[in-house]
Amino acid sequence: MCVFAGLSGCSTYQAKPLSTDVVNKALEQKPLQSVSIEASQLDHPLIRSIAIDGNGVYSPDELAVMAVILSPTLRALRDQQGVAQSQVTQAGILPNPQLSFSVDRPTEVYDPVATAAKGMGLSYDLSALLSHADNHAAAQANARSVNLSVAWQEWQYAQATRLSAYRILSLEERLPNARTIEQDLVEALSEANKALQKGYQTAVDLAVLHTNLNQARSMRFDMEQQLIEQRASLNLCLGRQVSEVVPIKRTADMPTLNEQVSELGRAIEGSRLDLLALKMGYESQEYSLRAAVKAQFPKIGISVNKANDTTPISTRGVGVTLDIPIFDRNQGQIAIGEASRQQLFDEYVARVAEARTEVSQIVAQIGHVKSELLSAELASIEEQHIVDSLEKTIHSGNLDYQVYRDARAQLANRNLELSALKQELLELGVALEIATGRSLLSSSITKTVTP
Fold it and tell me: Which domain holds residue 291?
């Protein structure tokens, strides 16, 4: 009955073959609109839940949250949490007592009559209780560390998805300007060929136009290639087919930094989940080392038994076993624990130093890009005035059309520069959010960390 009761709680093996059909079923795409409820109910330490209106066009923020739900990469990453929680369960289980029974029957006839010798004993290893609490606490701290680490990587994945969406919008904004520049140069080259035949221009002028046209065409090809790559990257984040075009909602303005960023490097230890995960890992190692130190205590086992020999005489007894710690005093495990703890300590210090340096570098880059952007905006305003003025003049027939075309090309190039600088400033803002673990942009998927 005891054996039956024990076996009734056992798990059974269930096969899960890694066949093509099983893999294809796991890779089946969920419709984007099907995750709107999950996105609105997302419970994450860093990522805000978001309401999706479901009109078939999605903002970069909506796509970022959807990627956390849909990505096959993140589903595999989250499986680590199940493993860590299983380790907590295992560490909390006490060792089983041991029951022994033996019987020896006489094989010959004796006088006086001999009976079967029987023995039954119940034993338990007490030494496992010494380190049980520390091992359980170590597993719990490790599970918290894994949860924080997974959440940190999910957040970075969401930010990467968001950036891909904004890069697509930026490239779609710049491509018309690039095509306008190329088309103007094609027209200029055609007119220059005619002028060359009449002797109004030289071959050198024609060669310059050819060079400019090739550069403009290469720039347009490069933008189109970047657009293909960014769409593929976005589709991968969302678990979509490479050929699918995900509709992106265009926002009025790109997100901007909403606070001063000069003193952000001092408070990152409480806001970056990767640093908090390392802290939990360090705490887990502290418990593991304490358990290893306690394991130096000699192993003690107690037992109770009842037996009789081949005569009817029965005995009851109590036994104690004790290891003599002459050779193995658990010194190897203690040394490993101390070295692992030191490794985690140094890794944490190095990560903090790296994060603080990274924040300082990004803040300096943001200041530089802001200065460039301001200068480019002022130049764009002046060049727009020039183009407007020339456009009025050319209608009166008092201006060479080539002058107007050159001014318009200069303005188009300036607009390309402005769009690229705005995209660079956005990417630096997202990089600063990642480096600090804080919400810093006017439109952000990040929320305040509450560890």
Answer: 31-436
Please write the tens of the pLDDT for every residue from 258-304: 666 656 656 788 788 889 999 999 999 999 999 889 888 888 888 88
Assigned domain for 4 exists:
no
Separation between Cα atoms, residue 279 and residue 448, nearest integer Å? 19
Distance spanning both ends of the chain, measured CA to CA: 48
Cα R_g (the chain), whole angstroms: 36
**Helix (H) / strand (E) containing 308:** strand 300-308
Tell me whether the omega of the peptide bond preceding residue 112 falls within 30 degrees of 0, making it cis. Answer: yes
CA 411 to chain centre: 40
399 vs 387: CA distance, rounded Å: 12
pTM, entire model = 0.80
The residue behind tokens 């403009």 is 216
Residue 373 to residue 377: CA distance in whole angstroms: 6
Q: Report the CATH number that the domain containing residue 268 is assigned in CATH.
A: 1.20.1600.10
275: number of Cβ within 10 Å:
20
- The answer to whether position 288 is within a domain reads yes
Beta strands at 314-322 and 117-125: parallel, antiparallel or unpaired: unpaired
